[in-house]
Specification:
- The protein is an alpha+beta fold and 130 residues long.
- The chain is built from three helices and eight strands, in the order βαβββαβαβββ.
- Strands 2-3-4-1-5-8-7-6 form an eight-stranded mixed β-sheet.
- A hairpin with a 2-residue loop joins strand 3 and strand 4.
- The radius of gyration is 15 Å and the shape is globular.
- It starts with a strand and ends with a strand.
């Protein structure tokens, strides 16, 4: 069974400098700022791009920066898919051998991320639709 994906919610790009990346996304690419949200690990800014958002994430500590960014100035960190039913999507992925992180809440929605070693080396976020 395949997970019931409904849309691409956003693409997360980990960046070395959030302000510089934000200026580029807004001034050069013309994306409209949507909102900012910070966590214990990241400073983030979201930008609207049609029905999909671009999320720029700047790691706040050196360990997270080294793990998620390495020597790069920026790189794609994850692709977030909207799902109508998070539990059904997680069950479908588990049936394919894909492991996910414990459930969390992001922007008021239930979410989890795949463990890269079980999802082809990339992090995929599943985020329940509103």
């Amino acid at each position: 069974m395949t997970p019931p994906l409904t849309d691409v919610d956003h693409v997360g790009i980990v960046v070395a400098d959030l302000e510089q990346a934000s200026r580029f996304l807004e001034a050069v690419l013309g994306l409209a700022p949507a909102f900012r949200a910070d966590s214990a690990q990241f400073r983030t800014a979201f930008f609207d791009c049609g029905a999909t958002r671009i999320e720029a994430l700047e790691p706040v500590d050196d360990a997270t920066r080294a793990q998620r960014l390495g020597d790069a100035g920026m790189r794609i960190d994850h692709v977030a898919f909207a799902v109508a039913d998070l539990d059904a999507a997680v069950a479908a992925l588990a049936g394919q051998g894909v492991e996910v992180t414990p459930e969390a809440v992001s922007d008021g929605r239930r979410t989890c991320w795949t463990v890269p070693a079980t999802s082809g080396g990339l992090i995929y976020q599943l985020i329940e639709s509103r």
